[in-house]
Design a protein that fits this description.
Aminopeptidase; eight-stranded mixed beta sheet; alpha+beta
């Protein structure tokens, strides 16, 4: 479990399926991230079991009630196409629509970056977003990621389409320099 001023980042449980469904069933959330809206609580239960079961996958919860309002993950080697190194990973995240614009995602992302560099020894953390996802772009800028490149025709397998993708990077040195 990881903690910030307002948030608890914890492992997902089967009992979180109802709360996950509440936010993941909103097409405005999944569409910009590249996955279809959940159609049932069973979809959410399957996601918890098969996607949110990775080693560094966390539910973003407000301290006041401990219920998931989003997800954040350091996607390690084997769960990302951005790197095949053991000392690099990709940061992925999404947040339920009622919580947009409150600074929650930058707060969660900063804690995940701290965890990546200080606790699990990452040297680089990659992060991407699809064209049009200005909220994700803004989170990356706020926490200090540096733009690297844009690629056209990026496969979005869960949506059966191709999109323009943008990639950013933060190094361990940049993280520690930015904190000083």
């Amino acid at each position: 479990m990881l903690e910030t001023e307002r948030l608890i980042l914890r492992r997902w449980n089967d009992s979180d399926a109802d709360d996950l469904y509440k936010y993941a069933s909103d097409s405005d959330v999944g569409l910009i991230c590249g996955w279809p809206a959940h159609k049932s609580i069973d979809d959410s239960r399957d996601t918890i079991k098969n996607v949110f079961s990775h080693k560094e996958a966390y539910a973003i919860c407000l301290k006041e009630d401990g219920k998931p309002i989003g997800a954040i993950e350091l996607m390690l080697k084997g769960n990302t196409d951005m790197t095949d190194r053991d000392d690099e990973c990709e940061l992925g995240y999404w947040l339920g629509k009622p919580f947009w614009g409150q600074g929650i995602m930058p707060e969660a992302a900063r804690e995940m970056l701290r965890h990546a560099f200080e606790d699990i020894g990452m040297k680089k953390v990659w992060c991407g977003y699809y064209e049009g996802n200005t909220k994700s772009k803004r989170v990356q800028e706020k926490v200090g990621f540096k733009y690297q490149w844009t690629t056209e025709g990026v496969d979005v397998p869960l949506m059966h389409e191709k999109r323009m993708g943008h990639v950013s990077l933060m190094t361990k040195e940049e993280w520690f320099d930015g904190r000083g």
